[in-house]
Write a structure and sequence with these properties.
Layout: H1 10-38, E1 51-53, H2 60-76, E2 86-93, H3 105-112, E3 120-128, E4 131-139, H4 149-157, H5 170-189, H6 199-207, H7 224-229, H8 235-251
Parallel strand pairs: 1-2, 2-3
Antiparallel strand pairs: 3-4
Length: 275
């Protein structure tokens, strides 16, 4: 009697392939939707967030002041109505004035997700060969009644562009501009009695500054994973990587937990290495 040959089930093979195909396609679709909805055309903010000196034109004392005042405003306004105000400064180096048109202040404001309750303002400064060539400001919807175009124009003209005053040196003019903006926000938006500052005192502080003189946290864009894990990322920014990891975990039956990378790449690269 002839021996029967064992034939694998065609239906089982096909179903297994279909399942894997559907799983991979689902993973790709999820990754694509998340990627295209979160990616931006501009660099992520720096780790310091409130100061983004990508043009590297600011002294560290200036960067430190902007960061410290930004953090203080955000923290003390948390308990206020429409709290969580954020003032974010950024410098960009361009080859010529025409290149400024490549930057959309509204898109940068949205990509960086500035200001809780839309109580934010973004201040952009563009430099050609270290010289300021243009300033732009984007103001959140709820901040607009306080930082109106007329008021902003008056403040910037009397500070940064006042070469007979502190504006003779950009760092000093910028800090005076910051203090004037803070005065408006504290007094008008949050009903503080006053916000006082003394530029002569600040000048002495700037001259005697003994803090760090070089900080990459102020001038280098955050990496993808650093941004995802930062306080500035939204839930949707985080759901993509977490969702992908969850799908990979399910698809591998949990075997990723037993994997061990061999060496060095940072971020999520090690998760995809094989033993």
């Amino acid at each position: 009697m002839a021996r029967k040959k064992f034939l694998p089930s065609i239906s089982r093979i096909d179903m297994s392939r279909v399942t894997r195909t559907v799983y991979v396609l689902g993973l790709l679709v999820f990754a694509g939707i998340w990627f295209f909805s979160t990616r931006g055309d501009y660099p992520n903010p720096s780790e310091a967030f409130y100061v983004n000196d990508f043009a590297e034109v600011l002294a560290q004392a200036t960067r430190s002041t902007i960061r410290d005042e930004g953090e203080r405003l955000y923290n003390v306004s948390q308990d206020e109505v429409d709290g969580g105000a954020q003032l974010v400064f950024a410098t960009f180096a361009v080859d010529n004035v025409e290149d400024v048109a490549d930057y959309d202040k509204t898109e940068i404001y949205r990509q960086w997700k500035i200001g809780d309750n839309d109580m934010g303002a973004l201040f952009l400064f563009f430099f050609v060969d270290g010289e300021l060539v243009e300033s732009q400001i984007e103001v959140g919807y709820r901040m607009e009644p306080y930082l109106t175009p007329t008021r902003l124009g008056q403040i910037i003209d009397s500070t940064i562009y006042d070469e007979e005053g502190w504006g003779y040196f950009f760092d000093f003019g910028l800090v005076e501009f910051l203090y004037e903006i803070l005065t408006v926000v504290y007094v008008d938006a949050y009903d503080y009695d006053s916000f006082n500052y003394d530029m002569d005192v600040y000048y002495e502080h700037w001259m005697d500054y003994d803090g760090p003189y070089d900080s990459e946290a102020d001038s280098i864009s955050m990496s993808f994973w650093m941004f995802v894990l930062s306080p500035w990322a939204t839930g949707w920014d985080r759901v993509g990587p977490i969702g992908l990891l969850a799908l990979l975990f399910v698809g591998t039956g949990g075997r990723l937990l037993g994997a061990r990378g061999g060496g060095g790449s940072s971020g999520g690269m090690g998760l995809f290495r094989r033993r």
